[in-house]
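Quick question: who can interpret this fold?

. . .
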Amino acid sequence: MLHPHRVSYYRVVRVRRVLVAVEDVDDYGFYLGWNRKREPVSHTAEPYAAALLEDHLAARSWPHRPKSGERWRVVVERIRDGDLEWLCEAAVSVQVINERIATHLNHVHGRACRCGRTEAAS
């Protein structure tokens, strides 16, 4: 694989994550380009991870049929020399309308957040 990544799909049940599936993909869609340090820029990683979830749920490849209002987490890690390197985590809500599945990316404040929000010091 040229661009190996591990994608883990979790359904959120109450406050607990339930691992539904894990897949290794050879995909470069998580990146927009390269920064000056020659490391990938992952501005598009979270929306792309949400799109992967939508594709898999729509393909009906899992025994679980999604319901409107379900919450999911998609964790993407880059596989480098056999080690996993965290890339992003996407919080996703699912809507089912006339058996068509749509996802909505929920904003999560984290390491890659660029929203300008500052957390109050505790």
